[in-house]
């Protein structure tokens, strides 16, 4: 604190004193403010602290209530007998068995032929596959009555379901299911081949793939070296056996050429054989591999 | 470009609502992107149409291009027509159906052209294995009338075709013949099924309206179904006839299932039965001839309406099998005679 300077005249020393007083005043108000702020912060802290305590208490109470409930439920099940723990273990063992059985029933799906009992009969699920790829599933809901009948199904319209049912459903249901499996798996396989050709080997096709719903007539033109000088081949694949995934008749012709040179004729004939013996997309895969080999030979 | 073609395209485009115009033009794929970009679609419709006709003239649109536009319009506005269903059959022991779309189209067109000389036939394939066929009919001496075409939707490798009910009934036998021969069938018969909703007809005819199947992989518990009852869960309220309500609910669920019903607008019953009455000696009961009577049920969604009759208390459950057999028998026109 400054002392009033006695050497200064009155006015000036007043200014000095007043200024001093003013300074003291601002100091006091500042310290008031600070202490107020401090107080409010402390108050908030206190409030939050009590809130935390409250919530902790509530949490502990709820935890205790849950524990109590669980124990009482278990006690109810065990009927408050001396060997309660044994009963609880049996219960858990049964639950585990049930989960196991449920999982096995779900996994049956992968065998290709599975089913589930319904209130009126059974719902059979045929899961089709081709070359290890799981494809679409189809359902047939059967009503177990005399006569056995199909309630509803998801088999496509062009699969001869009514014919197969007329032949086998009443006399030999196993034969009915296996026959239907054959048709559906073959259809799925043919469809898979056609889809793969369209998606993976579009570069080798010189025009759109012509197909029908059953995928039993495929017609396309292709070139072994797209953009190259060779003539395109026209292939027409007929699958007269609806239970097969390989064609029964194959015709390969060379577009725009009347008479082929011997090398082209050999190639044409070999292609015909290939289409008859190997799945469509595999044949085209071998074409691309051959193409790559040719490229490599050019490089070296 | 012929004036008649221009007029036809103009009238077709005028029918299209503005909000669908760009989608339909893109699907048509006749005018190029560049050309379409030059059109100001915010103008008044007449100006837009004029501009589009001008562009079509630049590209020399033919009648087949115009027919494609008409098919696309009809695909977007299927409900404007009433559709009939035809079922074809083959002889016993036929070869496997190796359906060839090119062969079918050629054969179909040839048969109609040989018979009528003047006929416009157009095809448009869809992704669901269906082909839309548009036929504008003429005669030996008159040009085809483009404004009254017949549309056929044929699902290849199935025996079914759906046709728009045409006013020109005299061409129906020829159409049937063309379809049958081109698709390598022997006979064609009209089913007693008719509706505006092509999708629902397809679902009924192909028996695809119920696609819910029980499997071990599904996680929906069976109890969820019964909650449709919408009964107050308050235990202080006792419903006196809850047993009856549950019985009705169960029967309705067994008859109609849990799936959405296909959409039909009406069911028609032609009765030719003798009058049956409990009272003896009534005048009508003495009639020897059968009474002729036509009963028609109409609704925006007939099957859903029938499904809600018993739960609403308007009819007893189970409903008459004449009403509940509609999707199963694939009919909504019935002729009932005394046995």
TrEMBL record, chain A:
The protein's predominant localisation is nucleus
The answer to whether the entry has keyword Thylakoid is: no
Q: Where in the cell is it found?
A: Chromosome, Centromere; Nucleus
Which keywords does this Swiss-Prot/TrEMBL entry list?
Centromere, Chromosome, Nucleus
Q: Does the keyword Nucleus apply?
A: yes
Single GO cellular component annotation? inner kinetochore
What's the superkingdom here?
Eukaryota
InterPro entries in the record: CENP-O
Q: Which family does it belong to?
A: Belongs to the CENP-O/MCM21 family.
Protein name, per record: Centromere protein O
Automatic annotation (TrEMBL), chain B:
Q: Where does this chain mainly localize?
A: nucleus
Where in the cell is the protein located? Chromosome, Centromere; Nucleus
Give the GO biological process terms. CENP-A containing chromatin assembly; chromosome segregation
InterPro entries under this entry? CENP-NAC/CAD_complex (IPR052011), Chl4/mis15/CENP-N (IPR007902)
**What are the record's GO terms for cellular component?**
chromosome, centromeric region; nucleus
Is-annotated flag, keyword Nucleus?
A: yes
Instruction: Could you list this entry's UniProt keywords, alphabetically sorted.
Output: Centromere, Chromosome, Nucleus
Which family does this protein fall into? Belongs to the CENP-N/CHL4 family.
- What's the protein name? CENPN isoform 1
Please name the taxonomic classification of the source: Eukaryota, Metazoa, Chordata, Craniata, Vertebrata
Instruction: Name the gene for this chain.
Output: CENPN
């Amino acid at each position: 604190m400054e002392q009033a300077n006695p050497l200064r005249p009155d006015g000036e020393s007043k200014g000095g004193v007043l200024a001093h007083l003013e300074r003291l005043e601002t100091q006091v108000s500042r310290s008031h403010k600070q202490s107020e702020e401090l107080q409010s912060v402390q108050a908030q802290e206190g409030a939050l602290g009590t809130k935390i305590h409250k919530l902790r208490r509530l949490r502990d109470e709820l935890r205790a209530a849950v524990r109590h409930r669980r124990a009482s439920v278990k006690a109810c099940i065990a009927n408050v007998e001396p060997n309660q723990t044994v009963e609880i273990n049996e219960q858990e063992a049964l639950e585990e068995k049930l989960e196991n059985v449920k999982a096995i029933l779900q996994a049956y799906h992968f065998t290709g032929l599975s089913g589930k009992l319904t209130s009126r009969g059974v719902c059979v699920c045929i899961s089709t596959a081709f070359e290890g790829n799981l494809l679409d599933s189809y359902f047939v809901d059967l009503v177990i009555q005399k006569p056995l009948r199909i309630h509803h199904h998801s088999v496509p319209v062009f699969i001869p379901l009514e014919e197969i049912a007329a032949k086998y459903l009443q006399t030999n249901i196993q034969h009915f299911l296996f026959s239907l499996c054959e048709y559906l798996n073959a259809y799925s396989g043919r469809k898979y081949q056609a889809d793969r050709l369209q998606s993976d080997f579009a570069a080798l096709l010189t025009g759109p793939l012509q197909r029908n719903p059953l995928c039993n007539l495929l017609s396309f033109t292709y070139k072994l070296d797209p953009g190259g000088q060779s003539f395109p081949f026209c292939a027409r694949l007929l699958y007269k056996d609806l239970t097969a995934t390989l064609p029964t008749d194959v015709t390969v012709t060379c577009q725009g050429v009347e008479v082929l040179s011997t090398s082209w004729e050999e190639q044409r004939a070999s292609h015909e054989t290939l289409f008859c013996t190997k799945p469509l997309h595999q044949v085209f895969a071998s074409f691309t591999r051959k193409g790559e080999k040719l490229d490599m030979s050019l490089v070296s | 470009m012929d004036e008649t073609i221009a007029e036809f395209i103009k009238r077709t485009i005028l029918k299209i609502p503005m909000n669908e115009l760009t989608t339909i033009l893109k699907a048509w794929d006749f005018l190029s992107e560049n050309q379409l970009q030059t059109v100001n679609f915010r103008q008044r419709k007449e100006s837009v149409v004029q501009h589009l006709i001008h562009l079509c003239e630049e590209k020399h649109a033919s009648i087949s291009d115009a027919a494609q536009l008409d098919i696309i319009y009809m695909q977007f506005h299927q409900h404007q027509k009433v559709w009939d269903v035809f079922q074809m059959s083959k002889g016993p022991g036929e070869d496997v159906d190796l359906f060839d779309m090119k062969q079918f189209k050629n054969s179909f067109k040839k048969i109609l052209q040989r018979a009528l000389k003047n006929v416009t036939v157009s095809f448009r394939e869809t992704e669901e294995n269906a082909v839309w066929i548009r036929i504008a009919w003429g005669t030996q001496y008159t040009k085809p009338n483009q404004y009254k075409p017949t549309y056929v939707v044929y699902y290849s490798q199935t025996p079914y075709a759906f046709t728009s009910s045409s006013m020109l009934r005299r061409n129906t036998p020829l159409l049937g013949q063309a379809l049958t021969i081109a698709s390598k069938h022997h006979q064609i018969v009209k089913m007693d099924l008719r509706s505006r909703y092509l999708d629902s007809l397809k679902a009924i005819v192909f028996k695809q309206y119920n696609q819910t199947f029980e499997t071990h992989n599904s996680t929906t518990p069976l109890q969820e179904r019964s909650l449709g009852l919408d009964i107050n869960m308050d235990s202080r309220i006792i419903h006196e006839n809850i047993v009856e309500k549950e019985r009705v609910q169960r029967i309705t669920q067994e008859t109609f299932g849990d799936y959405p019903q296909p959409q039909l607008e009406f069911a028609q019953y032609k009765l030719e039965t003798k009058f049956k009455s409990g009272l003896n000696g009534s005048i009508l009961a003495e009639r020897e001839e059968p009474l002729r009577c036509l009963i028609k049920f109409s609704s925006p969604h007939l099957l859903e309406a029938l499904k809600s009759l018993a739960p609403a208390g308007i009819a007893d459950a189970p409903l008459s099998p004449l009403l509940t057999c509609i999707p199963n028998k694939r009919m909504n026109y019935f002729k009932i005679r005394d046995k």
